[in-house]
UniProtKB/TrEMBL annotation:
SUPFAM superfamilies: Pili subunits. Residues 43-170 form the Type 4 secretion system PilS N-terminal domain. Pfam families: PilS. Keywords: Membrane, Transmembrane, Transmembrane helix. It comes from the Bacteria. The gene is pilS. The chain crosses the membrane at residues 12-36. InterPro entries: Pilin-like, PilS_N. This is Type IV pilus biogenesis protein PilS.
Length: 171
């Protein structure tokens, strides 16, 4: 007498299990892609915050005769009052998120913040976001100073290299 056991087909995963695994893989890929994009943009956001912090704190250094003699380096004073945000510091020097030098120099009654080695995409964002008032002028790569807001099309044209220089003069 032969005994036959019922044989069921058995596999590692069912079709719907494979579907769910593919769906999870696509979702993880999308999350990774979005995170990578936000990491690149975070440098620009941090730098924009640093510039805003320096603008506000430099204004605190103004006396009745201005910010000192024209050409006076204001970075040591900003470092002493903890007015540089999260900017990188080395002694009395500042560096931006892309290891470019940052200077803050008195022009008498005004001062100029200059950043070098700013990537093209960051240059466009910073040029359009930092100076939106008529008391600030922006100069990109030594070009003519523009008072107030710079439009994205103008910034795209002016931020022409992979290592740009931006100077903001604040009145």
């Amino acid at each position: 007498m032969a005994i036959h056991a019922s044989s069921k087909q058995r596999g590692f995963l069912s079709i719907d299990g494979v579907f769910w695994m593919m769906l999870i893989a696509v979702a993880l890929g999308f999350i990774t892609w979005m995170s990578w994009g936000m990491i690149g943009n975070s440098d620009v956001a941090i730098e924009q915050s640093n510039i805003s912090t320096m603008v506000a704190n430099t204004k605190k250094l103004k006396g009745s005769t201005g910010y000192g003699a024209s050409g006076t380096n204001l970075v040591p004073s900003l470092i002493n009052v903890a007015g540089t945000g999260s900017m990188g510091k080395s002694g009395t020097s500042l560096v931006n998120q892309w290891n470019g030098a940052v200077t803050v120099v008195s022009n008498g009654m005004t001062y100029t913040i200059t950043e070098v080695n700013v990537p093209k995409s960051a240059c466009i964002v910073l040029a359009t976001k930092v100076a939106k008032d008529q008391q600030t002028t922006t100069s990109i790569n030594g070009g003519s100073a523009t008072s107030g807001e710079i439009l994205g099309t103008a910034a795209s044209t002016s931020c022409s290299t992979e290592a740009n220089t931006i100077a903001w003069t604040v009145y």
